[in-house]
Amino acid sequence: MSRIHLRKAALAVATAVLLSACATQGPMRPSQPLPPGQTAPETPQVTPEMTAAAETLTRMAALQDRLYKVAAPLLIDNAELCTRHARNLLGFTAKNRYTYPGSYNEAAHAVLGMGERLQVTNVLAGSGAAKAGLRQGDELVAAADKPLPTGPNALSQAGAVFGPIVQKQASLPLTIERRGQQRDLTVPVTRACAFGIELGNADNVNAYADGQRVMVTRGMMGFVKNDDELAYVVAHTMAHNMLGHAASQRNAATIGSIIDNLTRIAPDTSMLIGSGGIKAMPATLDTAADRLAVYLLARADYRIEGVSGFWKRFADTYPATVLNGHTANHPSMAQRTATIDKAVAEVKAKKSDKKPLTP
């Protein structure tokens, strides 16, 4: 199977069932206290290198947490507009120690308490999983009374268990273990835009859309001043996916390779030299994404009055001459801001007239 087909297969499992195919980040909890009389399995001696690796994972997890929190209402409240991209989701991600390569595997195990079982790493706010009370750190034991797999291939194998249930049922009976005690939960499925939400482990200030995923780099997350501004970036990138722009520009494979690379803990930053092979987005497509993004933001109750000002400030700070920055890939700033201002006025008029917020 080709690399592209493997990536699509993994995404089909992860986005349709868990939410995101992100394989290098995820918040982790130290192992929970064991019941009286039960002893913990032996773990390797913690080295300074393991501690440093665990700190790296934890920093990345904090950024991913914030990204999920901001993306949640955009994904859920806009399912009606996603049409081809809307799916039934459970609204959580899960990983085990084998999700992490090399020394990070040992760090996740010895320092952060991740083991053979899949452990919940993110819960999408407002999703069925959140409403059912699923928490970060919960270990997944069984789904619909079927034991869930453990070990190196647990994530892909779990998709084969979850997938048919999510497609056919309105809720998932889930058995978890929390603080040494098993609990049974009923997790309602959530209709949402099924885009993977990824953190890019790089300092270039950009965001990427390959048609299936939304990636925001660490550099971009450092630039935004608040959650509204981060939502502006996520919504604009989502809109490109919803409108199929990566495919129409024949950029999907190139952007997909960049996303694959930047989700790694130690990405190859040489891929970010120059434009990275990405064609600049034409003004007609970019303005279409900007208009749709304003509606996505309004439907998710984000503050739309600041969208135009944010992108102007961004372009002033990182102009198109900054290669592999967002403005270089989206250079039509004058047309974009004019479109945004017009869309904001449209949305406000529709709200005033109590009309549906549909573009």
Give the SSE layout.
Blueprint: H1 3-18, H2 48-76, H3 79-82, E1 86-89, E2 92-95, H4 102-110, E3 119-123, H5 128-132, E4 139-143, E5 146-147, H6 154-168, E6 171-178, E7 181-188, E8 190-193, E9 196-200, E10 207-209, E11 213-217, H7 218-223, H8 227-242, H9 245-248, H10 252-262, H11 283-299, H12 307-317, H13 326-329, H14 333-352
Parallel strand pairs: 9-11
Antiparallel strand pairs: 1-8, 2-3, 4-5, 4-6, 6-7, 10-11
Description of the molecule:
The strands form four sheets. Strands 5-4-6-7 form a four-stranded antiparallel beta sheet. It has 14 helices and eleven strands. It has helices at residues 3-18, 48-76, 79-82, 102-110, 128-132, 154-168, 218-223, 227-242, 245-248, 252-262, 283-299, 307-317, 326-329, 333-352, and strands at residues 86-89, 92-95, 119-123, 139-143, 146-147, 171-178, 181-188, 190-193, 196-200, 207-209, 213-217. The protein is of the alpha+beta class and 359 residues long. The chain folds into two domains: 3-30 and 47-60 and 88-192, Roll (Pdz3 Domain); 195-352, no CATH class.
Distance between the termini: 40 Å
What best-fitting shape do the alpha-carbon axes yield? globular
Number of discrete helical segments: 14
Residues in helix, %: 40-55%
Entry summary:
The protein has 359 residues and is of the alpha+beta class. 47% of the residues lie in helices and 15% in strands. The chain has a 4-stranded antiparallel sheet with strand order 5-4-6-7. It has a 3-stranded mixed sheet with strand order 9-11-10, sandwiched between helices. Strands 1-8 form a two-stranded antiparallel sheet.
